Amino acid sequence: MNKTDFKGSVMLNPVPVVLVTSKNKEGKVNVFTVAWAGTVCTKPPMISISIRPERLSHEYISETREFVINLPSSKLVKRVDFCGVKSGKNIDKIKHLGFTLNEGINVSVPSIAECPVNIECKVKDIIPLGSHDLFTAEVVLNRVDDNLLDEKGKIHFEKADLVAYSHGEYFTLAKKPLGKFGYSVRKKR
Amino acid sequence: MNKTDFKGSVMLNPVPVVLVTSKNKEGKVNVFTVAWAGTVCTKPPMISISIRPERLSHEYISETREFVINLPSSKLVKRVDFCGVKSGKNIDKIKHLGFTLNEGINVSVPSIAECPVNIECKVKDIIPLGSHDLFTAEVVLNRVDDNLLDEKGKIHFEKADLVAYSHGEYFTLAKKPLGKFGYSVRKKR
How far apart (Å, rounded) are the C-alpha atoms in residues B130 and B36? Predict the structure, then answer.
């Protein structure tokens, strides 16, 4: 396998692509799209998102130190793209896109009702890295659409039709998984 | 849309799932699987991975402060699962799984030849969070399989058949993208 070398970028793919809601001290709410997001700790449950300092959401989240990660389903992807391109400085994206806001439970920031999963976060630390600041945050609540739950209360994420981002393009996941964690060593019954 | 609340976990999905190679001071090489990974900065290009302190790779990477992120294609997913379940303390996973190692270019750590993309990283910081330590790292080189490149040298990640991880299951991406970054505002020609 011959390979070619490239410098100066991050080729980690696929990554998540999520809608992040935030609120400033005056109560104004904004939404923007983040692909530089990841799970960073299991206990306590923690997430990180990276934000450019010039972004309006950077200002809002720095002020209140709270945000909500809203996982979009594939039918929302055009709106997701819009929220990544347009700035809340020039347009009220929530109003323009017709998003419904639900009040936060453990944070003051509202979540997007149309998204099947909402993850309420409280900022722990803000770490400047360069073009982006890294916000590490503790998850204080997950809200899951009842349509994803079976009778036993088990969550079926595959019903959420979530979206991944790979090298500048949005993708749904295949319908069927390749396998489940641990399947390589599980003994056949 | 009625929703149910859950505490105590991170429901960010999908996330990447990658093979991380590392090397200790004595030159021993290990590989393990990481899903708690993300892009954290564009300039300089930076990645983060989170590792439990009890992991052998935590020891190796802390010693040499270098690692390589190897993106697996779907045909490698059973081996990816194995590398997430089994510890290098008990088994030489690279030998057992028949991985071919390529020497590092800008790091001393080798990469996995069978993976279509290899991302060489140098650790910037190690931040304890709880169950996991967050390793932030600068990308010093990307190596891309020539089969992913077209005649103009453009990379076609869709040919890599990469894998996403969602709620404990491995998935390929759909063949066709839903859209490209910026498509929601692009004027039709």
Answer: 14
Its ipTM equals 0.96
Check residue B187 and give its pLDDT.
80
Residues A91-146 have pLDDT tens digits of 999 999 999 999 999 999 999 999 999 999 999 999 999 999 999 999 999 999 99
Which are the contacts of B186, defined by CB distance < 8 A and separation ≥ 6? none
- Between chains, do B42 and A132 touch, taking CB under 8 Å as contact? yes
Do the bridges between strand B18-23 and strand B101-102 make them parallel or antiparallel, or are there none, so unpaired? unpaired
Distance CA A54, CA A48 (A): 18
Q: Nearest chain B Cα to A131, which residue?
A: B43
CB contact under 8 A, B178 and A77: yes
CA distance, residue A28 to nearest chain B CA (Å): 24
Contact B132 A40 (CB under 8 A): yes
Alpha carbon of B158: minimum distance to chain A alpha carbons (Å): 8
**Which residue of chain B is at minimal alpha-carbon distance from A1?**
B145
In this predicted model, what pLDDT tens digit does every residue of B111-131 receive, in sequence order?
999 999 999 999 999 999 999
